[in-house]
Amino acid sequence: MQPFLSSHPLVLLCVQAVLVIVLSRVLALGLRKLGQPLVIAEVIAGVALGPSLLGVLSPATLQLLFPPASMATLGLISQLGLVFFMFLIGLELEPALLRGFGKSALVISPTSIAVPFALGAVVAAWLAPTWSLPGVPVSSFVLFLGVAMSITAFPVLARILSERGLIHTPIGALTIACAAVDDVTAWCLLAFVAAVVRSTGLSGALLTAGLAVAYCAVMWFLVRPVLARLVRQRTDRRGISQRMVAVTVVLLLVSALTTEAIGIHALFGAFFFGVIVPREGGLAHGLRERLEDLVVVLLLPLFFAYSGLRTQLGLLDSAGAWATCGLLLFVAVAGKWGGSTIAARITGQKWKDAMAIGVLMNTRGLMELVVLNIGLDLGVISPTVFTMMVLMALVTTVMTSPVLAMLQRREVTAPAAAATGP
Questions:
Q1: DSSP three-state, residue 190
Q2: Is the pLDDT of residue 396 over 90?
Q3: CB atoms within 10 A of CB 155
Q4: Which residues pair with residue 239 across a beta bridge?
Q5: For the chain, how big is the Rg over CA atoms in Å?
Q6: How far is CA 305 from the centre of its chain?
Q7: pTM of the full predicted structure?
Q8: How far apart are CA 80 and CA 287, in angstroms?
Q9: In whole angstroms, what is the distance from residue 363 CA to residue 392 CA?
Q10: Any idea what DSSP says for residue 56?
Q11: Contact indicator for 360, 160 with CB cutoff of 8 Å
């Protein structure tokens, strides 16, 4: 069996895809009853198929199904899937989300970025001598962990709100607006950190930052209007044509290649191109319809499998490692949930609503894994820190639905108690 799979890469890839998709969907059936989103099942499936579980139970099976030689192919497909996924995330960022909530969002969102960033940076500076890789500048390690603490998973948050019937409530709409601002801010910060890490010295970082600003200006002021004009000319009652889809995909890949060449990672180019795609004319909606199922059903689970294969719980082999993991989790929750809650309260929200906003903004999920994989690929964090942060992403996402349910129960029981009181 092993010689057959190793000599047929396409067959091996198909077997890997089938295993990942089936296991994810089976786990999702049980986890959905607990109020957990699909992303949790996919992450757990990825970790289970990696060295943390399958590698412990049957190393020979892990070697058979996911041999080291296949990792390069799996990684490339995962990266391509992430390019299209980040494009879809950009498409989901509707400017209309800020309508009526702009003022509150512009208070809550920066706070929910700044507080966890600051706390993460302080903790990272303290942990750097022990947990940073040799040769990695402390500044790069500090900046990256600060950004990683600041992430909110916009798509996971939106799906949780939708599943709980909160998407059209004032709290849901405000949280979506805050998460939208968060996404843009966090990805800009990540682009800056990537520029610093990849550059050689301050002059290189400044050059990369300047090129990134020029790229954003060209995309917003030149490409966006041209694309809008093209959409008006090329769409009709039948919707967007196959030619228009081809043009958009080419521009998406060129945008991703441009930011990769600049030094701020291809995913930022994909995300920003999604942001500038015109919403009128049905282009954004049509692209989502045509791409979303392929990306979400096939390509993203492969990314989770790839992430799971890089997550090694066995690296946390001491009390100190688990204590550090717990510290990172505490800082992440305190910074994101605490900072968002206080900012929401300052804007006039009731404590219960402010806490709901805080726990929703604390949802990290998939976006955290994307950022962590970037950090691992850039050599900023070690596999051990990667594993700690993956656990943090899992816990902060898993806790969202139960805490929301608890807050909703309190909302229901409080009026009932008042009604039966004297």
A1: helix
A2: yes
A3: 20
A4: 236
A5: 22
A6: 15
A7: 0.85
A8: 16
A9: 10
A10: H
A11: yes
Residue 178 in contact with residue 157, Cβ under 8 Å?
Answer: no
In the DSSP assignment, the letter for residue 136 is: -
What Cα–Cα distance (Å) separates residue 296 from each residue in 20, 34, 35, 89, 115? Answer: 12, 21, 19, 12, 32
Q: Work out the number of other CB atoms within 10 angstroms of the CB of residue 211.
A: 17
* CA dist., res. 268 & res. 186, Å (int): 11
Q: Which residues contact 13 (CB under 8 A, 6 or more apart)?
A: 70, 73, 74, 77
pLDDT at residue 245, as a whole number: 87
pLDDT given at position 40: 85
Residue 294 contacts by C-beta under 8 Å, 6 or more apart in sequence?
A: 84
3-state SS, one letter per residue, for 102-124: HHHHHHHHHHHHHHHHHHHHHHH
For residue 93, the 8-state DSSP code is -
Angle formed by the axes of helices 242-262 and 266-276, nearest 10°: 140
At 239, phi and psi to the nearest 5?
90, -165
**Contact partners, residue 381, CB within 8 Å, separation at least 6:** 133, 141, 144, 145, 372, 375, 389
The 8-class DSSP code of residue 151 comes to -
- pLDDT, average across residues 6-33: 88
What does the block give as tokens for 215? 């790229």
**Angle, CA 271 vertex, CA 311 and CA 260 arms, to 5°:** 75
Q: How far, CA to CA in Å, does 382 sit from each of 48, 135, 136?
A: 20, 12, 10
| Main-chain phi, psi angles of 153, to 5 degrees | -85, 90
Q: What are 181-237's pLDDT values in tens digits?
A: 787 788 788 888 887 787 666 677 678 778 888 998 999 999 999 998 888 776 655
The residue count for the chain = 422
For the chain, the first-to-last Cα distance in angstroms comes to 75
Over 60: is that where the pLDDT of 332 sits? yes
Q: Which of 151, 175, 161 is nearest to 35 (CA)?
A: 161
Task: For each of the domains in the chain, give its residue range(s) and CATH number, in order of start.
Answer: 2-413 (1.20.1530.20)
Contact 150, 189 (CB under 8 A): yes
- 8 A C-beta contact, residue 55 and residue 315: no
Q: What is the mean pLDDT of the chain?
A: 85
DSSP helix/strand/coil, 134: coil
